[in-house]
Amino acid sequence: MTNHLVLYEPLIPSNTGNIARTAAATDSVLDLIKPLGFETDDKHLKRAGLDYWASVRVVYHDSLDDFMKTVTDPTHLYLVSKFAEQTYSDVDYSDTTCDHWFMFGKETTGLPEPFMRANPEKAVRIPMTDDVRALNLANCAALVIYEALRQQDFAGLERVHTYPHDKLK
């Protein structure tokens, strides 16, 4: 079983960098659907200080259609959108026999409206007030993936770390 954080045409490198760090920390796959609003070559990554990029399993997709061809079980595809009726924490992600894909839209426009209209049963939202347009994309990804991992009993993740120095004794 693998969890996937899927970014549709991300524009802001720092959001993608933060989500990549979350993917590395949670052993999730980072799926990036092109076009991207930035470069991910070694030179750009080093300049951005993304020293953990080598620990991230990144899969690039040329289009939304190409990505959808890789989704082996569409019943476990979740579209994160503020326009969804179902709250992300009300969904059961506990099935560890299959992959789960959590898709997030472009920072400026979200996921394509025709795609959302064709898949309303897959849409989930993070509750928030009407006082803000949207939450930060990286924060949304962290909220959703950690809810899924909590339901999966944090399978494969370290629950306790030892302090590297003996100062806490």
From TrEMBL:
S-adenosyl-L-methionine binds at residues 80, 105, 126. It holds the Pfam family SpoU_methylase. It is found in: Cytoplasm. Keywords: Cytoplasm, Methyltransferase, S-adenosyl-L-methionine, Transferase, tRNA processing. SUPFAM superfamilies: alpha/beta knot. It catalyses: cytidine(34) in tRNA + S-adenosyl-L-methionine = 2'-O-methylcytidine(34) in tRNA + S-adenosyl-L-homocysteine + H(+); 5-carboxymethylaminomethyluridine(34) in tRNA(Leu) + S-adenosyl-L-methionine = 5-carboxymethylaminomethyl-2'-O-methyluridine(34) in tRNA(Leu) + S-adenosyl-L-homocysteine + H(+). Its EC number is 2.1.1.207. Belongs to the class IV-like SAM-binding methyltransferase superfamily. RNA methyltransferase TrmH family. TrmL subfamily. This is Putative tRNA (cytidine(34)-2'-O)-methyltransferase. It comes from Lacticaseibacillus mingshuiensis.
